[in-house]
Recover the amino acids of this structure.
């Protein structure tokens, strides 16, 4: 029997995208305002938002460019910030395995923190349903992301000064994290990952998240044994 | 123009990172221990992102704001744990930002 999930995966994707829209929008507006202040044009800002599809890496790139860093160093440093995409790719591999070739080459463009984590909460979707869900989820989140960057860039000077706006994004990640702390290995992974990321991030900001992620995975595995 | 080129190059590198274990080297060829370890990637990466973002926010904030942000983060984490509601966590985040902006201290 086909369920509502099978027939309306886009509705499910819209529901999931809506749950993170506020946090994404806050981060997108912050990024847009920052890029506007750094003199980045609206076209590179919004096109970059869609092509890079990763706020921290884009922020790193435009900040380093503003500081006069060499082109190659900018790309490499920002790519290191996005290195966790490699881990997401490995983790999502199984769900892409029985998909058409076009999907396996193009749809990974939608791999970001939110799509990886939200789709992880939908483990029972069949291959075809997952395909429709993934495309819808990636598209909805992309629309929110690019629109909020554009709003930040165009309306930045008119917006009220909210120095801690980035906290909304942090709250979104807390909302995604807390319900997952249901086992000892998961708690160990989170505690270790967070501690390592905070310490490493103070010394080398671009390495904080990837270091924490690797350390956390190792800790979770060790506790399970 | 330089910004656009840099972001396009970064986008290309990021796409390679995204497809590496999905399309180029499928992850089922990775060692089993590594694959099972990825079960803990979500809590590990989420805690890492939260830690890095909070550290940056607290470093830049006034002492009172930093204390309030830390308390708010703990409260939001607790509420999210109880309710499993991401939208509520985001809404509480907005409330904290507005409170810190407009609170007459």
């Amino acid at each position: 029997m086909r369920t509502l999930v099978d027939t309306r995966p886009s509705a499910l994707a819209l529901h999931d995208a809506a749950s993170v829209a506020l946090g994404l929008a806050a981060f997108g507006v912050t990024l847009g305002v920052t890029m506007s202040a750094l003199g980045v044009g609206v076209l590179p800002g919004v096109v970059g938002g869609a092509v890079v599809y990763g706020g921290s890496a884009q922020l790193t790139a435009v900040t380093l460019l503003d500081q006069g860093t060499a082109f190659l160093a900018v790309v490499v440093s920002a790519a290191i910030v996005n290195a966790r995409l490699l881990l997401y790719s490995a983790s999502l591999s199984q769900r892409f395995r029985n998909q058409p070739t076009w999907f396996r080459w193009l749809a990974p463009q939608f791999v970001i923190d939110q799509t990886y984590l939200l789709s992880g909460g939908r483990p029972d979707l069949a291959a075809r349903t997952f395909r429709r869900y993934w495309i819808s989820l990636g598209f909805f989140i992309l629309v929110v992301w690019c629109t909020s960057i554009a709003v930040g860039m165009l309306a930045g000077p008119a917006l009220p000064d909210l120095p801690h706006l980035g906290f909304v994004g942090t709250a979104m990640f807390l909302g995604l994290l807390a319900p997952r702390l249901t086992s000892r290995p998961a708690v160990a992974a989170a505690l270790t990952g967070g501690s390592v990321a905070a310490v490493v991030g103070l010394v080398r900001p671009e390495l904080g998240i990837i270091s924490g992620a690797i350390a956390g995975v190792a800790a979770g595995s060790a506790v399970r044994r | 123009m330089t910004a656009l080129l840099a972001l396009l190059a970064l986008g290309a590198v990021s796409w390679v990172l995204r497809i590496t274990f999905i399309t180029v080297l499928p992850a089922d060829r990775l060692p089993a221990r590594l694959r099972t370890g990825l079960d803990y990637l979500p809590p590990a990466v989420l805690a890492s992102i939260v830690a890095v973002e909070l550290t940056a926010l607290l470093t830049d904030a006034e002492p009172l704001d930093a204390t309030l942000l830390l308390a708010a983060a703990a409260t939001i984490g607790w509420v999210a744990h109880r309710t499993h509601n991401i939208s509520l966590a985001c809404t509480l985040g907005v409330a904290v930002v507005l409170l810190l902006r407009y609170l007459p201290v």
